[in-house]
């Protein structure tokens, strides 16, 4: 139902020459997660691979892709908010992936409540200027090792919630941020603020040990079930 409503809004916006926010069906105060979600819903529906009988499918998809590219980037979004859209001739320069990329790989961690999808718009404020520790996964959705790590990363983030913050950066989407952080391979796992890079196996136990051994919080290691039972037992009645 929501996708149908979004498509109606998109068609109205496209025919009326409306702005990028209306093309994506979002408000002007939408955050980056809302922008990504709106774009993905449109991408899997409007992609030319799925609309081969529509002679205008390519142009429609280029326009919605251009809207996404501008609004996801803080500098381009600021310029757009001040001056409006650029020349339509630049839309033809927009590149896009295959339909299966948007269906299966776009925003791997967007729906995980324990993992924050980071990008250039919020990385400095959330990570670099934060008093909290962050463990950040720099990945490419086209990397098979990144997909192998994904279920482990989700469990790790859920199990260690409250110990450190877990983030993810899609380097296909935000290559400039990954370049600034000197990311050269995927997946790259970096602990902030120390910027220490994890170089061990991607096993859950090894990753857990790495985080706990460096956590700023007062974490007590428990070696036996008896010790755990003692520490977690309710206090005796008065």
TrEMBL record:
InterPro entries: DnaJ_domain, DnaJ_domain_CS, ER_disulfide_reductase, J_dom_sf, Thioredoxin-like_sf, Thioredoxin_domain. One of its GO terms (molecular function) is protein-disulfide reductase activity. It comes from the Eukaryota. It is found in: Endoplasmic reticulum membrane. One of its GO terms (cellular component) is endoplasmic reticulum membrane. Residues 1-17 form the signal peptide. It is a single-pass type IV membrane protein. GO terms for biological process: autophagy; IRE1-mediated unfolded protein response. Residues 19-84 form the J domain. Residues 106-217 form the Thioredoxin domain. Pfam families: DnaJ (PF00226), Thioredoxin (PF00085). Keywords: Autophagy, Signal. Plays an important role in regulating the size of autophagosomes during the formation process. This is DnaJ homolog subfamily C member 16. It comes from Graphocephala atropunctata.
């Amino acid at each position: 139902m929501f996708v149908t409503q979004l498509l109606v809004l998109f068609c109205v916006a496209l025919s009326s020459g409306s702005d990028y926010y209306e093309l994506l069906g979002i408000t002007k105060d939408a955050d980056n997660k809302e922008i990504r979600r709106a774009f993905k819903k449109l991408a899997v529906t409007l992609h030319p691979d799925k609309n081969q009988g529509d002679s205008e499918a390519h142009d429609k998809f280029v326009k919605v892709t251009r809207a996404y590219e501008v609004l996801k980037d803080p500098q381009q979004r600021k310029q757009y908010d001040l001056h409006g859209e650029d020349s339509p001739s630049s839309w033809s320069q927009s590149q896009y992936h295959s339909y299966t990329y948007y269906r299966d790989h776009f925003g791997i961690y967007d729906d995980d409540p324990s993992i924050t999808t980071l990008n250039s718009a919020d990385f400095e404020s959330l990570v670099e200027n934060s008093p909290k520790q962050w463990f950040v996964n720099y990945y490419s959705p086209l990397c098979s090792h990144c997909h192998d790590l994904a279920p482990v990363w989700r469990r790790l983030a859920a199990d260690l919630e409250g110990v450190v913050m877990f983030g993810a950066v899609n380097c296909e989407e935000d290559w400039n941020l990954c370049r600034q952080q000197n990311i050269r391979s995927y997946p790259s796992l970096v602990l902030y603020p120390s910027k220490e890079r994890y170089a061990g196996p991607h096993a859950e136990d090894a990753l857990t040990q790495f985080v706990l051994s460096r956590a700023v919080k007062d974490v007590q290691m428990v070696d036996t079930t008896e010790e755990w039972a003692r520490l977690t037992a309710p206090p005796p009645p008065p």
